[in-house]
Write a structure and sequence with these properties.
heterodimer, A: mainly alpha, 3 helical TM bundles of succinate and fumarate reductases, 4 helices, B: mainly alpha, 78% helix, elongated
Chain lengths: 137, 130
């Protein structure tokens, strides 16, 4: 064994490690936990879009036209669609975690249902909002 | 004597109660508080954005300058920026292990969160008051 695994007193200081991700079979709750973090990080960068849009509106018509043109392009719409999904997915994930924080819904059938509801609900809400957007527009 | 004797106090008793048990739960608590606030506020945000669709520049400006949308946007931005700062902080805590890089990452996270938040708030207030 390496020297670093022993302290000054010669007693072994290596602590037991808990098994990490690659040890486990992938499950839906695990994937949704990872997706929650990824969508959260994506929303961080999504706020840059919001800041850009708000500054453009407050700057004037020219800056607004540039922002509106970019956001109305195919790429812009794809990013906004992803932003919408990330927002709803993360929102429902947060509600699920809030329920779990109270100690409810942690048992086998309930936790799987909650997780599935989050996945389906996030996609459903995104499609609903974009359908409304196209109907109103 | 070849080796110094083992310390009388075991390792665990020397580190016990030196952790972050005092203010260590503040971030976790604030994360939950902001997430509760963000449930209605992010729905309001989506509704406001939907109401802007198809409007020209002047109408968008007027809409965002009204008190209700402006206040909801400000609340959404404030709680959202606080929430995302804490979220990115825990991502950095989890994945960035090099001590110096981690400090810089945490500082960059704080600065960018404050900048994004302040820029959004400034823009919304400008729309309301000019």
């Amino acid at each position: 064994m390496k020297e670093a695994e022993f302290g000054a007193s010669g007693i072994e200081t290596r602590r037991p490690l808990s098994p990490h991700l690659q040890i486990y079979r992938p499950t839906l709750t695990m994937m949704m936990s990872i997706a929650h973090r990824i969508t959260g990080a994506a929303l961080y960068f999504g706020t840059l879009l919001l800041a850009w849009f708000l500054i453009a509106v407050s700057t004037g018509g020219g800056a607004y036209d540039v922002a509106a043109y970019c956001l109305n392009s195919i790429a812009g719409k794809l990013i906004l669609f992803g932003f919408t999904w990330a927002l709803f997915h993360h929102l429902l994930g947060g509600i699920r975690h809030a329920i779990w924080d109270t100690g409810h819904g942690l048992e086998h059938p309930q936790r799987e249902w909650l997780t599935r509801a989050g996945l389906v609900g996030g996609i459903g809400l995104t499609v609903t909002v974009w359908t409304i957007a196209y109907l109103v527009h | 004597m070849a080796k110094s004797p083992a310390p009388v106090r075991p390792a665990m008793s020397r580190v016990r109660f030196l952790g972050s048990a005092k203010s260590g739960t503040a971030d976790a608590w604030n994360m939950r508080i902001t997430s509760i606030a963000l449930v209605p506020l992010s729905i309001a945000f989506v509704a406001i954005v939907l109401s802007l669709l198809g409007k020209d520049y002047a109408a968008v400006r007027t809409e965002l300058g009204h008190p209700l949308p402006a206040i909801l946007m400000l609340l959404f931005i404030l709680s959202g920026v606080f929430h995302m700062k804490l979220g990115m902080q825990s991502i950095i805590d989890d994945y960035v292990h090099a001590a110096q890089l981690k400090e810089w990452a945490l500082i960059a996270n704080l600065f960018s969160s404050v900048c994004i938040g302040l820029a959004c708030i400034y823009a919304v207030l400008k729309l309301s008051f000019t």
